[in-house]
# Entry
Amino acid sequence: MARRVMIFLFDNVEVMDFAGPFEVFGVAGQREGKHLFDVFTAAIESRPVTARNNLSINPDYSFQDCPGPDILVVPGGFGTRREKNNPRVLNFIRHHCEHAERVLSVCTGALLLAKAGLLSGLHGTTHHGALAELREDEKTLTIHSAARVVDNGKIVLSAGISAGIDAALYLVGELHGEDQAVETASYIEYDWQCRNVDNESVLRYAQ
# Structure
C-alpha cells in the first residue's frame, strides 16, 4: 500500500523546499511501475498559496479536510517566521506528527518543529542562515551545522533548500531500499553525494 505524503504549504514557502521532496516522492518507483507514495499538499485554507518569488500554488487540501499522512513534510522559507507563532499551524503539525510514521523538515521548517515542541533533546540542522535562530527556539537541540541530513528515527531534518532532495532520497532508501533511492536520483538526474551515513553529512540517531 502506498504511503501518503503530506507537504505543508504556506505563504512565502521556499519553492525548492517543497518541490524537491514533492518530485522525489512523486516519481519514486514510477519507472518500474511501482506505486510507492501518494503525494499531496495541504494549507491552512482552500485558497492559492503564494510561494517565494510569487509562485502561486493550489493546495490539494485545507486543514479542515486533509487526510492523515504517513509522512509529513514541513518545508521552510521566510514564511516560517510568521507561522512559527501561529497556534493553529503548530497544533496541526503536532497532531499529524503524533500519528505519522516519519516527519521531514526541510530548511527552516525546523523552526516550526522547534516551536511545536517536537525537537526537545534531539539532533538537527537547518539552513546555515537560521542556525542561531533554531538554537534560540530549542535550546536542548544538538545542532550539527555541517550536516545535510540528520535522522532521529521518526523525525528527520535537512539543511537548506536543495538539502531537502537529499533527505527525501534518504527516506526513500530507508523505506524501500538504497537501490530504489539510487534509481530515483538517476531518474531526476540528481548528483546524490550525501547518501551514506558518514557522521558528517548524514547522521543517524535512530530512537
